[in-house]
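Repro:
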Amino acid sequence: MCVHNAIHEKSSEILKDLLKSAFFVMQAKYYLENQKYIHKRQILMQHVSPEEKEILLIYSENKYINNLDSVSEKLINWASDLICQLS
């Protein structure tokens, strides 16, 4: 979806939803690795990689609005790395 949005839709609203979904994926990943559920974004930021923290900050600070291409690239790279780790 992120690639489709970056190429065709170019919608900041879709990107916002994708960033929100990334939070839930990070939350689940952290839970699977640590058997501890963190429900707040600010707390999760203290326990994730710098790349994941950057993605969470982009969403929190609305930095996706004028940076569709660069934020999409960050999100695609993060998701790609996560898929590779799980393979």
